[in-house]
């Protein structure tokens, strides 16, 4: 077994000790080697050092023999091991409590870890996630530019906060993406219908993902465009208020199919409603 560096080798040994509930003790470790033994008098031995023919590190000795019982307190489970173990859960739920972490360790590994060590591990995981999120946000502009160059006609809009920009900082506000191929397909072969769906984004950075959806004649749905926003925008200005009134006037709500058809026929009396009514009447309503 080989490792790219001694740090990766130590992490692998720590996870081995955690998964197998073995209390391993460090004999000696430095920048070029690491050796371990069992905390009791078991014959277990592990020795890792740099390979002479490459820059990688190789496990030179591995004697996986035990005569002791599983340990309930493991010295190899440090804050770095806990940070890697719970990184995904913390990213999905920053409110993941220390008690939940302790319960998961006791249930999954029969391991007892102090609350102070759990706190250090969680803080380290949050710190690493913060750095990874910041790095990803820094790549958004390059990602948008690559989409424009590789997909001509694609719309990519990335907005940053003007208030924060005045302070000399950059803060992501919202992003809109619509591929040119999706636009052309909607114009050429899909129904003249656009729906809207959305979901809340969970994790450290909240927001909403909104998706414009098209439909073909087989009732299959296709994403047309999507946007990531902080929250739903209110229709407040005069033009949007007028649009909202038109949408309300064009609505046809009913409980029975006959009543629904009557409501659609009333759209003929509204300006620009004739085409919409005929189009909707052409397709039978579905539950």
TrEMBL record:
<dbReference type="InterPro" id="IPR004332">
    <property type="entry name" value="Transposase_MuDR"/>
</dbReference>
<protein>
    <submittedName>
        <fullName>Uncharacterized protein LOC107831069</fullName>
    </submittedName>
</protein>
<dbReference type="Pfam" id="PF03108">
    <property type="entry name" value="DBD_Tnp_Mut"/>
</dbReference>
């Amino acid at each position: 077994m080989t490792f790219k560096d001694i740090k990766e080798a130590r992490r692998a040994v720590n996870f081995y000790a955690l998964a197998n509930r073995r209390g391993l003790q460090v004999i000696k470790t430095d920048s070029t080697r690491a050796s371990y033994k069992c905390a009791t008098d078991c014959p277990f031995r592990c020795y890792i050092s740099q390979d002479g023919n490459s820059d990688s590190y190789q496990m030179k000795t591995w004697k996986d023999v035990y005569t002791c019982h599983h340990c309930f307190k493991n010295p190899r489970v440090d804050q770095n091991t806990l940070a890697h173990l719970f990184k995904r859960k913390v990213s999905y739920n920053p409110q993941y409590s220390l008690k939940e972490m302790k319960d998961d360790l006791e249930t999954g590994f029969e391991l007892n870890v102090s609350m102070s060590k759990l706190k250090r591990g969680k803080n380290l995981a949050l710190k690493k996630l913060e750095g990874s999120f910041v790095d990803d946000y820094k790549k958004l502009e390059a990602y948008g530019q690559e989409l424009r160059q590789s997909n001509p006609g694609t719309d990519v809009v990335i907005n940053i906060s003007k208030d924060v920009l005045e302070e000399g900082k950059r803060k992501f506000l919202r992003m809109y993406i619509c591929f040119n191929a999706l636009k052309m397909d909607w114009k050429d072969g899909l129904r003249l219908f656009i729906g809207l769906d959305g979901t809340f984004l969970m994790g450290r950075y909240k927001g909403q993902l909104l998706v414009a959806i098209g439909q073909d004649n087989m009732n299959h749905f296709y994403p047309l465009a999507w946007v990531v926003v902080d929250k739903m925008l209110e229709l407040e200005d005069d033009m949007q208020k007028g649009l909202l009134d038109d949408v309300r006037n064009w609505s046809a709500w009913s409980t029975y199919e006959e009543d629904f058809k009557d409501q659609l026929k009333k759209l003929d009396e509204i300006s620009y409603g004739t085409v919409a009514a005929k189009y909707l009447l052409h397709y039978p309503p579905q539950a």
